[in-house]
Recover the amino acids of this structure.
């Protein structure tokens, strides 16, 4: 296992801030080598064993909605016989934090795009509804106009006024909604890759499961049928207010562990 000390990055400082730990003169060490075993150790820490007999033990910094956290881990599993890069930050005399883990042979694939919210489908439904109402009114109007004994210019004008008002009001309503939707454009990211670690733990009495893909971990309140070595796709939708929602999609492809 190779080790080298490096300065804290801005991302490290942000994580420490989210944990209500004031950044100071912390030691940050990057460890890299061939991983042969991963296990859950005492005090809810993770212990990584390398082929030369050395190991790294630290508290993983895992994300939950809106913050980072130190969970009470209950289960841990991961890929072994893999080149791994660990970033550890020393906090206190005997405490090490683990902000980043990278399984170098399994990077994630990221796709990003700006999208409209799901309300676009509502806009299409509203358009269809207005068109249907207009078609019904128009059909009735043509039927009335087609009767010679009832045909007259005032009747035509009076007959066209109600549907014109309905269609105009409907179009104005849809245009306003469409403009509102444009202001609600969200950002969608799709991350697809091999699950390299699956961790379970408890934060504030709530049970979470984390899946590590590439350089990121994603938490779920539900345990998915995704184990280390399997493909997992995560779709992240970010709204204008900063809130995010996650959708997980498991796939059958896998790699040998």
């Amino acid at each position: 296992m190779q080790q080298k000390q490096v300065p804290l990055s801005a991302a490290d400082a942000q994580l420490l801030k989210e944990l209500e730990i004031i950044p100071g003169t912390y030691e940050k060490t990057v460890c890299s080598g061939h991983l042969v075993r991963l296990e859950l150790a005492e005090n809810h820490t993770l212990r990584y064993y390398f082929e030369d007999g050395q190991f790294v033990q630290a508290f993983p910094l895992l994300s939950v909605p809106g913050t980072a956290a130190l969970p009470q881990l209950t289960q841990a599993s991961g890929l072994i016989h893999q080149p791994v890069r660990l970033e550890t930050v020393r906090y206190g005399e005997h405490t090490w934090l683990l902000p980043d883990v990278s399984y170098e042979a399994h990077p994630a694939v990221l796709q990003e795009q700006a999208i409209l919210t799901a309300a676009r489908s509502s806009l299409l439904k509203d358009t269809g509804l207005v068109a249907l109402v207009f078609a019904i009114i128009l059909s009735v109007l043509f039927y009335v106009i087609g009767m010679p004994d009832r045909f007259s210019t005032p009747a035509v004008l009076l007959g066209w006024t109600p549907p014109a008002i309905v269609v105009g009001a409907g179009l104005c309503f849809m245009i306003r909604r469409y403009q509102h939707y444009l202001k609600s454009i969200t950002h969608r990211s799709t991350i697809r890759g091999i699950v390299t670690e699956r961790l379970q733990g408890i934060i504030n009495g709530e049970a979470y499961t984390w899946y590590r893909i590439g350089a990121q971990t994603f938490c779920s309140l539900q345990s998915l049928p995704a184990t280390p070595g399997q493909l997992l796709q995560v779709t992240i939708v970010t709204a204008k207010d900063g809130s995010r929602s996650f959708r997980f999609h498991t796939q059958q492809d896998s790699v040998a562990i």
